[in-house]
Write a structure and sequence with these properties.
Order of helices and strands: EEEEEEEEEEEEH
Number of strands: 12
Structural class: mainly beta
Shape: globular
Largest sheet: 7 strands, antiparallel
Helix content: 10-25%
Distance between the termini: 48 Å
Number of helices: 1
Strand content: over 45%
């Protein structure tokens, strides 16, 4: 069994942060999430760490898929990826018990990440820090639809 690994989108600080621990209540619901924040202190460039505690409403957990992209970057739920299938942009989602690649912008087509359809996956951002990638995917899809309509397809 592999260990679950998480990072999170901190809604308060508006940034991706590492998750240090997740505390659960007796009923199994998340009680709080402790993150890791690094600070550069002083003129000497020393790094100091803080481990603030947040309620679950302030945090969006993003689980690691256990896979890495072609550049060695770990792939998480919520990442936006390009693959070697052409122009499509995908969002990594957790769906029906597994990690999937959903074609943006409408997520109508979904592929299991273990499918060998994709030999090269590259993380180009995530849905929280790079919302412009979602907008670009929407515009590209609209442009392709218009081109097909204009060509009678």
């Amino acid at each position: 069994m592999r260990n679950a690994k998480f990072r999170c989108w901190n809604k308060v600080d508006k940034e991706i942060q590492s998750v240090r621990c997740i505390d659960f209540r007796g009923d199994g619901a998340i009680d709080s999430i402790r993150t890791v924040k690094a600070y550069i202190t002083g003129d000497d460039g020393d790094i100091d760490f803080d481990f603030p505690l947040y309620p679950p409403d302030d945090i969006i957990l993003m689980q690691s898929t256990g896979q890495h992209d072609e550049n060695g970057k770990e792939i998480y739920d919520g990442d936006i990826c390009k693959v070697d299938d052409g122009d499509n942009v995908y969002e990594v989602i957790f769906y029906m018990g597994g990690f999937m690649l959903a074609v943006l912008p409408r997520k109508i087509r979904i592929y299991h990440m273990s499918d060998r359809l994709f030999s090269n996956i590259e993380v180009i951002g995530n849905i929280y820090e790079n919302p412009e990638l979602l907008e670009t995917a929407r515009h590209d899809a609209e442009r392709k639809s218009e081109e097909l309509a204009n060509n009678g397809i």
